[in-house]
Automatic annotation (TrEMBL):
Protein name per Swiss-Prot or TrEMBL: Fe-S cluster assembly protein SufD
Superkingdom as given in the UniProt entry: Bacteria
The organism of origin for this protein: Leucobacter rhizosphaerae
Residue ranges annotated for the SUF system FeS cluster assembly SufBD core domain, each copy included: 150-371
Composition skew (Low complexity), residue ranges: 1-17
InterPro entries in UniProt: Fe-S_cluster_assembly_SufBD (IPR055346), SUF_FeS_clus_asmbl_SufBD_core (IPR000825), SUF_FeS_clus_asmbl_SufBD_sf (IPR037284), SUF_FeS_clus_asmbl_SufD (IPR011542)
């Protein structure tokens, strides 16, 4: 459905109008019902099907859209972006044309930013994981520049394969992209997206995953760098027995905007999902946004789902928006729930550490380190985990200067 189709209206039948309901002078609002849930959002790969962003839309209202004009309304360079993928057995890397049948299987944009990137790209970068022996593939994007770019990436795990794919983003960039993930039946795939951009970088990224029968998919986001980072994963558990897990860790400094909108779609019986995002904020104007949407469809009986977001505020002048949403269309489920909390240090934790001879400054570092490393340690690649731990140490060192 396109946006244009979504706004079509029909006149009410005679005698069914609500008493006292009259059209206002600002438009025919009486016959237009706003989108209330994630599952009702219009979708399209054509940017022309979406109106220009004002910042008042539900999907954009927490984002500094005034700084995104080049990516939302400008002309994007859709040529190949520079990527480096070290050769490894069991993983292949290639470029495919935009009309290739392997594109468009995992999801479709729900907003203008993603549609603009989809409309502009000329070729997609395809990474394929195959074979039952576990394989790790690292995709490095570190040679972009400040020119507005569009990109499209497809990651596929063939049936019964096992793998880890790490997307490493560093340097300067003004990038809008779509990432599709296709997890075959019985496959086990972990995809990690690491944002360690320079302070001037702007990155809009929409991830779409479809998970096969009895397959398992783990999606991990680590956002530590970039002026504006907006990464929105949508995981669709489309086949019976599918398992989806989404983890996120983020550390926002002064003036930095880090946003993650997570969608977990249960669209088959006996599916399971877990969502855990944890963030820390320090410095004037540091802003994080987490929105978690879970949909349990009518046919998803036996679903087991839980989502949570935790934010640790280290200094005054920060803002953390945290919004969990749960939509359930069937009563035949194993369980579903959500939780959200934002606060300062736990005084009991600090007291416990200080009572054992640890200074208050070091105690605070230990608390933050343990808070975020719960997510970092899910990655499963020692070198990447060590590098990110060092990055977090550097962030904490800045906070004590």
């Amino acid at each position: 459905m396109t946006t244009a189709e979504a706004t079509k209206t029909t006149a009410p039948e005679a005698g069914t109008e609500q008493h006292g309901l009259k059209a206002h002078s600002d438009g025919d609002w009486a016959n237009r019902v706003p989108v209330q849930t994630r599952s009702e959002r219009p979708t399209s790969t054509d940017v022309a099907d979406f109106a220009e962003v004002t910042g008042r839309e539900a999907v954009w209202k927490y984002t500094p859209v005034a700084k995104l004009g080049a990516l939302l309304n400008g002309e994007l360079d859709g040529s190949r972006i520079p990527v480096t993928v070290p050769a490894v057995a069991g993983a292949t890397s290639e470029w495919i044309a935009r009309d290739d049948a392997r594109i468009g299987r995992a999801g479709v944009p729900e907003e203008r930013g993603a549609a603009a990137a989809w409309s502009a790209f000329s070729e997609a970068h395809l990474v394929t994981i195959s074979g039952e022996e576990h394989v790790t593939a690292i995709v490095r994007r570190d040679a972009l520049d400040a020119a507005p770019r569009a990109a499209h990436t497809v990651v596929e795990a063939t049936p019964h394969s096992r793998g880890l794919v790490i997307l490493e983003n560093t340097g300067s960039a003004q990038l809008s992209e779509n990432v599709e993930i296709v997890v075959g039946d019985g496959a086990q795939l972990t995809l990690v997206s690491v944002q360690q951009w320079n302070d001037d970088a702007i990155h809009l990224s929409s991830h779409y995953a479809t998970v096969g029968r009895d397959a398992s998919f783990v999606h991990i986001v680590v956002s530590l760098g970039g002026g504006i980072v907006r990464l929105n994963p949508s995981i669709h558990l489309d086949h019976e027995g599918a398992n989806g897990e989404a983890f996120g860790a983020y550390f926002a400094d002064a003036g930095q905007h880090l946003e993650h909108q997570v969608y977990m779609d249960h669209n088959a019986p006996h599916t399971r999902s877990r969502v855990t995002y944890k963030g820390a904020l320090q410095g004037e104007g540091a802003h994080t946004v987490w929105i978690g949407d879970v949909l349990i469809r009518q046919n998803a009986n036996g679903t087991d789902s839980y989502e949570q977001n935790r934010n640790l505020v280290l200094t005054p002048g920060t803002r953390a928006d945290s919004i969990p949403n749960l939509e359930i269309e069937t009563g035949d489920i194993e369980g579903a729930g959500h939780a959200s909390a934002t606060g300062r240090f736990d005084d009991e934790h600090l007291f416990y550490l200080q009572s054992r001879g640890i200074s208050e400054e070091e105690a605070r570092k230990l608390v933050v380190r343990g808070f975020l490393l719960e997510v970092i340690n899910q990655i499963g690649d020692d070198a990447t985990e060590e590098r990110l731990q060092a990055a977090i140490e550097a962030e904490l060192a800045e906070s004590t200067k």
